[in-house]
Amino acid sequence: MYTRFLSYLVIFLSSCSHSENKHFEYALQLADKNAKELESIQRHYQNNKKKSTTALFLINNMIGKQTLDSNSIKKSQLYFNAFTIYFNNQGRFKNNIQYIICDSIKQLYPYAESHPRYLSDLQHISADFLIRHIDYCFHIWQQYPWCKDIDFDTFCKYILPYTTSNCYWEQASDFFEQKYATLRDTVSHISYKEIGKIISEDIDKTFVQNWVLFSQKHKGLLPTTFENLAKAQIGTCLEANIYKIAALRANGIPAALNTFPNWGNANSPHFWTEIIGDEHIEKLYDNTQRPYISDSDIPVDNIFWKNTYSPTVKDTLPHVSIQYCRTIPKVYRINYEIQQNCLALRAKEEIPDFFRNPGIEDITDKYIVCKDIEVPLWDNKHKKEYVYLCCYDDNNWIPVCWSIPRKKQALFTKVGVNVLYLPAYYENGAIIPAGNAFILKENGELKCFSQKANKRETFATFYSKTPYRLHTALQAAGTIGTRFSVCNNKDLSDSLNVYTIEKLPFYEDSFKIPTNKKYRYLVCNFQNTPTFQDSYSIAEIKIFGENQQQLKGKLTGTKGISDNKLENVVDGDRVSFYQPNKSEKHQYIVFDFGKPCKIEKVEFYPRSDDNRIVTGEL
Asked: Which whole-number Å values give the CA distances from 129 to 170, 231, 243, 587, 598, in the listed order?
């Protein structure tokens, strides 16, 4: 979305000085018919040097900023109207009701998805809005007692910006001023960092971050307007933090959006809010695998798979190691202010989408143990001006940092340790390897993986295709305590317990029923299973009778939530899963075979990523 403006900006910066006046003149050129609006702001503040300076800061750095055209997402507005009605009536979304809301609308309006279009802020933002915004920001900065130690530079960079990640609402200041009026009256004696923490925790209680809903189940609902985020209180981690930063800034708390392009050992980027001036992190994150014990284990927001510890997790197979946490290769801050050394302003060739943002600033060394490294490349001559380090996300190599190749090597600075990297070029959206993959060890050594095959014959046993991740282990641990029983009475009054899950099942497990007696019903009771962060879930249950014939029958029990319906336990798919509605009084599944049958064996599969090695599969 930045491409057109940035191409102009690169040409401009290469042909003129970097003076503020030149930037302002260029911004007016891009503003086109809206230039008079922007000029009127400077005239309005001609007798107020500080406000004139802030107006110039906002306009000069508005180059490339865009805002969603609400008309382009009218079809998806149905969803956010429904979310808003529910939130106003019920508060925070409970029992995954958001899935039911979306499923219902999808059935009625199957094509209600957005086709987002963006408008240039320079060409559409009004003088009236910017003047009101600047005056409001100065008011809180000068009047709120907790702002007394915030200097002018911090104020300009982290309180004054009206937008974060191309998303704002003209009424946001009024909305948050009213929302937190009572809080401000009661906490005026504490620091802005403490107030910021209170506001952040308040937002975390109400704003639901749901990546699966928007990225997998119902694609096309995002992006949406800031007004929708404020009223519906739902989105991904990006939308949650856009909202949080606006709330903090509207109350005089300097804040910025932090991110990284991809995890080092998982897929997707992540976003979180930093309150500027937070205490220095004494122990940087070293990307090593260790179980979560307490909040002190989290130097970076949401770094672990689950901030939960279960003693049962350690009881997995003796040769299976658990991937307790995600690793982070790089950390960037997304500033409103254009960064003069960013790749977006330098590159004359196609670059990855992430690096097209002219506001990104490398702050890896604030959070992560990192090294400056010389990475060997295969060739002296290079097909591209830039080379990247990429991390693998289980499907693709994702660029996370860049450098300029020099002969057969490239210098990369502030690179996170204990992560697998691949040096590569970026061409037509494709990743082209430029050297051997390597793991950056904590001492700065590169453990390279050569293309040349090792001639020694080795033997290895593989238990899973990817590491056994903590959240998968916790999903399995959540089945411990499940009781299986057999009976013949319809009211289940003669139930005989035949097996209880007492140890962690590694992807699958089974038990035999050594009796010749026949039974009509098999009951799976999970009334007393433990509760971690997720509700009980199970992917598959298979029941075998004589001669290993799989038994079929009618299925009844606790209703499932949304797509995670009861039938999923017999659909033959190890990825789909059943998740019961925990609000129901009884928690069980009943298999009715229609008549008494001999049951010899039961197999069960906890909810998982299905990454185990399966005999007979390629």
From this structure: 7, 21, 19, 55, 76
